[in-house]
Amino acid sequence: MTTIEGRFTDASNLNIAIVVARFNDLVTNKLLSGCLDCLERHGIDTTETSSQLDVAWVPGSYELPIVAQSFARSGKYNVLITLGAVIRGDTPHFDVVVSETSKGIAAVSRDTGLPIIFGVLTTDTMQQALERAGIKSNLGWSFALQALEMGSLMGQLGSIKPST
Ligand code: INI
Known about the structure:
Strand 1, helix 1 (25-41) and strand 2 form a beta-alpha-beta unit. By secondary structure, this protein is an alpha/beta fold. The chain is globular, with a radius of gyration of 16 Å. Helix 1 (25-41) packs across helix 5 (139-158) and helix 2 (64-74) runs parallel beside helix 3 (93-112). It has 5 helices and 4 strands; from the N terminus they run E-H-E-H-E-H-E-H-H. The chain has a 4-stranded parallel β-sheet with strand order 2-1-3-4, sandwiched between helices. The protein has a single domain, classed as Rossmann fold (3-Layer(aba) Sandwich), CATH 3.40.50.960. It binds 5-nitro-6-ribityl-amino-2,4(1H,3H)-pyrimidinedione. 5-nitro-6-ribityl-amino-2,4(1H,3H)-pyrimidinedione binds next to strand 3 and helix 3.
């Protein structure tokens, strides 16, 4: 039996891209900070000159999939992280944005075979979003941890060759 698990000890070998939505940036900036803090503490170079980390900003969560697709097709990264905050308003717009964003990110991940972390908060209120972006805990930190786990896991799967 082979048990395969993502490790956090080889994180410094990973190339990572983060795509972050500007809409509700009070929340998404905090998610990004938490994310970068976790990556840095696991040995990722998060400085301006880093060659293993790139960050792209998009207008809103709806635009996350297309930029994730571009990053994924570049072949440069081991794992992507998408960050957004969709907060329910009085119209059905919320449902459209959440549905297209989540389906789009899942489709890019399946089509390209690259793990993409779904770091999009979907909440009823700004208060709920802020609680998840640092007031209580910062899910940005968790999203980064999940990225490290998936980057490592997929790397191990890639090195498993079928026996002949
Ligand atoms: N984008 C978000 O990231 N969060 C939201 O809460 C949101 N709301 O509520 O409208 C939102 N809308 C913008 C959308 O993502 C696109 O940027 C826009 O429709 C242009 O394509």
